[in-house]
């Protein structure tokens, strides 16, 4: 029996990331940047107003609000004539003369010689002439050219996951396309004479095809571009045609329901001349019986998963998902693992690493992680799909451990975050 770690090493050694491709920035979200995006222009590209107000020379408003008294005994008021108005997007240059003000909108280019913007609330809001109530310092409320990014700066680094902020920055520096690591293409096929699609009513001895839907969703969650083939015939000739067609269009192929009973022999016969495909026991539960090989001219990683949906999803999580993450260029392909204390006892199969469903919680008082086992508790069944749907983690039990007592620490792998 092969260890989980050995099987994972064998699988990940077969990982081949698709070549980087250049895509529109609107299509790049969630992908890994494959280039250093160097800016050619400053951002902002010109000095601009950071607030609605009046563009001024700061030296002209220094005395505002000082309570100075004139020769006539009256308070001195500092006023400036408003000699123009500049809105955002204006392309008409304006030159500011000493002791003048120009009305500006947020984002408007700053007039020549202006070095500050006087906010509206520091004036009386006049149109032809303004009373200055408080001064501003040089550079205040001004976005200088290149304050954000200078020419030659790296706006987005290679290896960065492109999110909303990165898309915005790419647009701001004038990039309409970017080189990224594309999503690996993954095909999901279900086999089994007992399967019917969800749009049909199962007859005696028939069940719905759960795996092609569940595994396709898991692959999308991992970041793959998924083709759900659905149910394929177990006739060797027809099955070979289906799989061969997917090997041409995919970086990863997953065949569910292919490692049990007569289906295994039919699948082996169908795929025998496409490449080496090994089916063996891996020291894990659920999902110990599984297959892996590299098929076709391009040696595409191909997985044979159990027919039981829980086992298939667990094997996918442990073996297939890391391969997708590596193909995406992610440095850390595995789930985050934390230590939690159990709130119920757990039993595990000897000499197999357990990947048991659980609900992870956090103690509000101590901040400590706690985990409620959904599978692996005494008397629990390992095949129940409903409990997997309730799980937000997998409890990892070492092969030499068969009993975990309440309160014992265990390793827990986060599954996808909800909400």
UniProtKB/TrEMBL annotation:
SMART domains registered for this protein in UniProt: MoCF_biosynth (SM00852)
The protein's annotated pathway: Cofactor biosynthesis; molybdopterin biosynthesis
EC number: 2.10.1.1
A single Gene Ontology CC term: cytosol
Keyword Phosphoprotein belongs to the record: no
A GO BP entry: Mo-molybdopterin cofactor biosynthetic process
Domain of life: Bacteria
Family according to the record: Belongs to the MoeA family.
Function: Catalyzes the insertion of molybdate into adenylated molybdopterin with the concomitant release of AMP.
Protein name per UniProt: Molybdopterin molybdenumtransferase
The gene coding this protein: moeA
